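Researcher: Here's the sequence for the chain we discussed earlier.
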Amino acid sequence: MWQGIGYRPLPDALQARSLFDFAALPWPDPADPAFGWGAFTDAGGERLCGALVAVRSESSVMLHGPVVVSETEPLEVAAQLVAAALDHAVAAGAGTVFARPQGLDRVWVRFGFVPVPESMLPPGLTARAGVGLYAWRGGSALWSLREPARSSED
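Model: Thanks. This is the structure I predict for it:
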């Protein structure tokens, strides 16, 4: 909770679509994200003031957003959404989380994301090329661009 803002998973990630449209950010492909997180104001109850959605491909997740329309600490609201999405992705078995910079370098670096080339994206996440890419793998910037060795159980 951050200054009157509550965070929770979106039961339907499509709830975030209006914020993406407002911010003129493209909606992710496929049109039905794997999960979404929302930031809601407590003043009056349920006004969505921030959102982040994720698309999954195998053991990788691509974050879209965060989009924040709160005047109160928007960078911190964005950081809280990223923290929640990382926890959600890890709990769902994701090994690598990707994100586009969107001018949020301070947020990405705070959580251990590092710049990586577009060629790192798995085929299921390459639908829309962007201008830059970050990746997170276990919260440490000390990792190789090579994929981790997979066990015979994968």
